[in-house]
Amino acid sequence: MATHPELAAEQAFVDHAYEGLEESRRRARRLLQMRSLGPGGTHQARLENDVFEETARARRVQLELGDVALVFGRI
Q1: Cβ-defined contacts of 42-50 (< 8 Å, 24+)
Q2: Model confidence at 22: pLDDT above 90
Q3: Is a pLDDT exceeding 60 seen at residue 37?
Q4: 41: which of 22, 50, 53, 58 lies 20 to 30 Å off by Cα?
Q5: Strand, helix or coil at 23?
Q6: Dihedrals phi, psi of 12, to nearest 5 degrees
Q7: 53 with 32: CB under 8 angstroms?
Q8: Rounded distance, CA 75 to CA 73, Å?
Q9: How far apart (Å, rounded) are the C-alpha atoms in residues 7 and 66?
């Protein structure tokens, strides 16, 4: 069975898209791990910490696609 001449390039594009998604997920996880506030801290520091955590969690949620495909193939 013959394959489409652009199949390899198409697959490389799809692979690259999913690799980028996985890298974004890793970065979002690292952001949450970085967040640490020692004992004490000012009210401002605690507030900034909470905002940072909420933003990082929201980003992780955005990157979870569930059953939705990231891309669709042309071929």
Answers
A1: none
A2: yes
A3: no
A4: 58
A5: helix
A6: -60, -40
A7: yes
A8: 5
A9: 26
Q: Tokens for 29?
A: 């996880």
User: Residue 1 above 90 pLDDT?
Assistant: no
Q: How far apart are CA 46 and CA 37, in angstroms?
A: 7
pTM of the full predicted structure?
0.73
- Both structure tokens of 70: 């990231």
- Nearest 5°: phi and psi at 6? -100, 5
Residue 63: how many other CB atoms lie within 10 Å: 15
**Which whole number is the average pLDDT over 29-58?**
83
Residue whose pair of structure tokens reads 């594009």 in the numeric block: 13
